[in-house]
């Protein structure tokens, strides 16, 4: 029998997740269906109950329901506890298992697909919203030399820094105005500034020779990407992360790891 999965968000019509998971299923020979469902803003929990009653095996969760999914799950992975958010749910009997695959997806894209090990690197994480929180601990687990969190609202960067228990890596929180004398090997934009084509006021001197500038947004060149390119950095968007976080979720549900390269290649063409 076909096992049913879905992605829940609001809005959701733009989601590439159904296409990605259908390609994974075809490639691995898994008999699953996967659809995009727009849950009402005040009806996420009821929608999850409905899906469980209909025999769905799990779902992905996106904006704005990741924290609600975290509160709804009755079994939480270490990664979701660190992120305080859930992007993947698995339904098993009475268990609603919550995981967060965003951070693993980002690290896998940078280390394996782009070939840049993060261990020993100086990393700048720009942003302190849900996406930054989701990737913070998986980045620290790679043992970078230094991690600086910078945000438009510096207090939020400070709060994120305070959530870090790891005392192996040096973690700092600063405002954009305090980046003047710093250089980084990897600069990750986890803000939503690209959605409004807004520039981020960071100095052009932050890019170390050979630096990677990674924007978690995908679909178009953001001002951050253009700025980084102009100042000599290698640039990547978040499409690889999107596919890798989906592969982690597929693996959790189906216990088989799909190849991500053909899926990335196909999405870049569409
Ligand atoms: P949130 O709303 O939780 O946080 C937004 C962040 O962006 C805050 O740090 C905010 O700063 C900052 N910000 C917004 N506008 C500006 C601006 N004009 N200049 C500087 N900083 C700005 O959003 P999320 O964290 O959930 O999402 C952030 C991005 O990550 C989105 O674009 C999303 O698409 C992307 N993403 C990509 C994924 C992928 O798989 N590739 C997965 C998850 C997210 P402040 O605190 O000052 O308001």
From TrEMBL:
Enzyme class, UniProt record, top EC level: oxidoreductase
One Pfam family it belongs to: Shikimate_dh_N
Catalytic residues (positions): 66 (proton acceptor)
Pathway it works in: Metabolic intermediate biosynthesis; chorismate biosynthesis; chorismate from D-erythrose 4-phosphate and phosphoenolpyruvate: step 4/7
Chain residues that bind NADP(+): 127-131, 151-156, 216, 238
Keyword Amino-acid biosynthesis: yes
Record EC number: 1.1.1.25
Domain called Shikimate dehydrogenase substrate binding N-terminal: residue spans: 7-89
InterPro entries, alphabetized: Aminoacid_DH-like_N_sf, NAD(P)-bd_dom_sf, SDH_C, Shikimate_DH, Shikimate_DH-bd_N, Shikimate_DH_fam, Shikm_DH/Glu-tRNA_Rdtase
Catalytic activity: shikimate + NADP(+) = 3-dehydroshikimate + NADPH + H(+)
Residues binding shikimate, per UniProt: 15-17, 62, 87, 102, 218, 245
Domain Quinate/shikimate 5-dehydrogenase/glutamyl-tRNA reductase: 117-193
Molecular function per GO: NADP binding; shikimate 3-dehydrogenase (NADP+) activity
UniProt domain SDH C-terminal: residue ranges: 238-268
GO (cellular component) term, any one: cytosol
Gene Ontology terms describing biological process: amino acid biosynthetic process; aromatic amino acid family biosynthetic process; chorismate biosynthetic process; shikimate metabolic process
Keywords: Amino-acid biosynthesis, Aromatic amino acid biosynthesis, NADP, Oxidoreductase
Subunit structure: Homodimer.
Record-linked NCBIfam families: aroE (TIGR00507), PRK00258.1-2 (NF001310)
Protein name: Shikimate dehydrogenase (NADP(+))
Source taxonomy: Bacteria, Pseudomonadati, Pseudomonadota, Betaproteobacteria, Nitrosomonadales
């Amino acid at each position: 029998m076909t096992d049913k999965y879905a992605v829940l968000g609001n809005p959701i019509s733009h989601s590439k997740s159904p296409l990605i998971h259908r390609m994974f299923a075809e490639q691995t020979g898994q008999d699953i269906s996967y659809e995009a469902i727009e849950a009402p803003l005040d009806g996420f929990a009821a929608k999850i109950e409905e899906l469980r009653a209909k025999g769905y095996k799990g779902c992905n969760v996106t904006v704005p329901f990741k924290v609600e999914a975290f509160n709804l799950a009755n079994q939480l992975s270490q990664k979701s506890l660190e992120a305080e958010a859930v992007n993947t749910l698995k339904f098993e009997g009475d268990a609603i298992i919550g995981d967060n695959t965003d951070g693993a997806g980002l690290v896998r894209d940078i280390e394996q697909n782009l070939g840049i090990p993060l261990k020993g690197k100086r990393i700048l994480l720009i942003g302190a919203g849900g996406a930054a929180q989701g990737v913070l601990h998986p980045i620290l687990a790679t043992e970078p030399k230094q991690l600086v969190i910078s945000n438009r609202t510096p207090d939020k960067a400070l709060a994120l820094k305070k959530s870090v228990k790891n005392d192996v890596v040096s973690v700092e929180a600063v405002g954009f105005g305090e980046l003047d004398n710093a250089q980084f090997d990897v600069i990750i934009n986890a803000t939503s500034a690209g959605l409004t084509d807004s520039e981020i006021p960071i100095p052009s001197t932050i890019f170390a020779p050979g630096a990677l500038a990674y924007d978690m947004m995908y679909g178009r060149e953001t001002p951050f990407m253009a700025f980084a390119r102009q100042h000599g950095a290698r640039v990547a968007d978040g499409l690889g992360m999107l596919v890798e976080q989906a592969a982690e979720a597929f693996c959790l549900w189906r216990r088989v790891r799909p190849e991500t390269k053909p899926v990335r290649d196909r999405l870049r063409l569409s």
